[in-house]
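fold-stage: in
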Amino acid sequence: MRYEEALLALCKGNPDIVVMTAENRAAIRNLPAVLGARFIDVGICEQTMIGAAAGLALRGRVPVVHALATFLVMRAFEFIRTDVGIAALPVKLIGAVPGFLSEANGPTHQALEDVALMRGVPGMQVFCPADEAELVACLPDVIASPAPCYVRFSALSPRAAHLEPPAVGRAEVLSEGRDVAILTYGLLVGEALAAAAALTARGLSARVVNLRWLKPIDEQAVLDALSSARLTVLLEDHFSVGGLASIVAELCLSRGVTAPVLPISLKDRWFRPALLADVLAVEGFTGPQIAARVLAELDRRGSRSTRPSLR
């Protein structure tokens, strides 16, 4: 089932759902004719959209708002924080083309700080599905939650079968391994699986954890990965500050945990625009490139045969 079909089915079952957009109809282009007045396009006015969504939520509606991720989370950030966050309203923020999915767009359209901004809003949930199937499977939980939620939208086809139900705050383990653990989310789940296959070919086993939810984070899944592997890779198409690496660092500090980690992210830079496959290759985020970085890090640490202890 496609996202548009899943959202329409939920709308039919719940008359309080209102679909909104800031002139970003790519994933919902057929809904206006069906929903009528329950579909609102404000034009390129993200702040206005969030303010209106907050007003609708105060009157018992469940607004599901759509915009390009970079403009949704940055141009309208104060409105999200103040109108939605402080009031803890159930507005659902659907951010299109986040991270590397922006591919051929330049820095102005690259949402690489969206997770950092949204998880900084008290009470905000952050959902980063690996593909459209996972998005659709968890959409009822997103809509039903009384909390505001930011969704990194994905229309990708699955690269692997999902093994566990996508409940709020629950990660899934896609492969087991004791040498390396790869924690990731969204688009890069597929590349993590490819990296694990490349490592297996070199005689190493790799656990791949699809975190799905970055807020609330599945703390136990993170801690299990850290304790089970010689090296834990934190893989994300996000700036190195405020995303997964920061989340894991905060968790480890709060628990008094230390472990060897390799963050793979964008450090203080935007990516070079291109078609998605070329972006991944140029930036070093293909499965084989990730595996090569893991092998180099294990060699640097001298840990190919010695498992560091988790303290």
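fold-stage: in (second)
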Amino acid sequence: MSHSRRSFSQGPVTGTDAQIEAVEELRNHLNLSTEELKQFRDDLRHEMDVGLSSDDSHMDMLPSWVYKHPTGQETGEYLGLEMSGSNIRIYLVNLHGQGRISTRQQKYVIHDSLKKGDINSVIDFMVESVDSFLSFVGKYEVKEPLALGFVLSFPLKHTALNKAFVLQWTKDFEITGADNKNIAELLQIAFKRRHINVNVEAVINGAVGCLLAHSYRSLDTLVACTISTGTNAAYWEKFESIKKSNVTLPSVENGEMIINTEWGSFGDLNPGLLPRTFYDNRVNRQSVNPGVHLFEKMVSGLYLGEIVRIIMVDFLDRRLLFDGQYTTELNTPYFFEASYMSAIGSDDTPDLEATKHVLESIMNLPSTTLSDRRIVRTICELVSRRAARLVAAAISAIIEKRNSLEQGLTISMEGSVYESFPNFPRRVNDALKALYGENVNHINLGVTRDGNGIGAAIAAMINITQKQSA
């Protein structure tokens, strides 16, 4: 095999024949052609249809009970309460009309002891946090109750916008005592007990929050997509497509409702729908939840570093990297974090100094060659590029489902992977261009910051208007 000089992101410029051959082989495994992306898109779109009409899908396609679009002209002051992986954030959101929003916020850390215990302990902690936040923003003695929206990054089953039950505590949460209990009601009771003048008006999922926040600013927003520790998307769907037998829709002409896709589970019932490699199979098999969230395990921040680590260990086993030197760190699952991929991907120094720092100072390898570092950089690029292309194909499934390309649309993007991985937004865009050609110009990708909490506050406002017009 020749040692011809390649463009930087296309693989090692130097190396043995065996190294160059191994990288070529990896490139073939991780490269997805436009045809493969189209197949993936079509399969995911089919799964959306199944999920909208039954509970037999691995994508839950959960109705949010948000069916009024924000106009961007609403005004008022609302509270947003957000519970994510390790923090609670509380927002005081002022809607000024004309799509303008201002916020004040504070963050409170959820201690690990609260993550594995009774739901009431978590509820009490959140209510205490809201109490101290209201003092902080000078809203302690409010005469009129403040409307609050609560956003959780967990799958929710709704029977109304303020009646929601957690289907599954994911991430590292093991909460007891919450089965079949309406989270909004638990919160409301706790506020009343402490004589805090707050009405819990809405409970929503994070992706739904992002979609609402962006919809207030940009009325043609169709989809919100999160690529962070995990991944999810929500979008506006027509009432006529929502055919679940247990969902009775309001009688609104040409109505639309936000659907929380829970697309991280795509492929769980049929892994053959995903273009998985030997490395993906290993990540899944060795994870705490084998067979669950298979799509998420190919694209989200919790798993991307682990895919790279497993590839590096495979190359090392084949004596293609680091002169066969093992370290405890390299052998430790999830030790190689997505943030290291980000640092390596941004490294354009001639000797790849940042890559050297990650490998030698963090992963504790005694020494690395420039060829080693170039191979590692290529591995990171290939894994990241594949994730971006899969995300683009998944977004494309929603665009096709709503047949929305002609009139143009806005997509709200958020999450640490999308925002901090070098070239990730460009790669998503490149894949959309491969799928749509020049029509890609009809798609506007925007980033939503603090979308979850702002969206929760807007959901509270929407529920009040929905009740008034019912």
